[in-house]
Amino acid sequence: MRHLLRISWCGAIAALAFSTGCADEKPLSEKYPTQWTTCSALFGTENMETLRDILDSDDLKLSNPALSVDQLREGLTDEAIGPYDKFEGFDEYDVCRLSGNSLFYASVTWAADHIKAVQTYTERWHRAAPDVYVADSSLVGKDIDIVFRCDIGSASSEQQEQVLLEARVKPPSSLKFSDTFHQQLSVNLARALRDELACTNKPDIPDDLRLSK
Fold this sequence. Notes:
The protein is of the alpha+beta class. It contains 8 helices and 7 strands, in the order ααααβαββαβββαβα. Strands 1-2-3-7-6-5-4 form a 7-stranded antiparallel sheet. β2 and β3 (about 105-110) form a beta hairpin.
């Protein structure tokens, strides 16, 4: 009897230690406050929680730079209104990178190609809505790559020809990550960028990006 009680007691202590260790584990919102806030603003908090559950592992982490939404908006705006350097090109912003049992990654940049170039490159791009184009996923490694016209009020009329915003979402290699969820995240990102940058042409980002086209 004493032997059984000892085993039960040891088991209880082990369980308590395990639960205490789990309780001490900080959530992503506390470990990476800026990154989590930015990802949540661009994709939605519920979507980020779903993504966190899909990629769940012992070393789940956000490894994108601590870039706030305000800093992202200011950086993109400054590039849109400033002179374009064809040698330097535009900066690519790593806006959300969540890794666990796989990797989810999203980036934003001003596209080097203007709208007419995209319209004529039909082997790569198809039109999802007026001013909104999506790349053939077979050409971009299953990523969803969206470009859309986003006119910035303080940019010159000549510069507006160059102002195409590009958002790319790389899916994790997880069977739990569906094509529908991938599209939902991509649409949320594009709409969040449109609203944050206050695109004066107010591009309509559709729910259906016609990915099968």
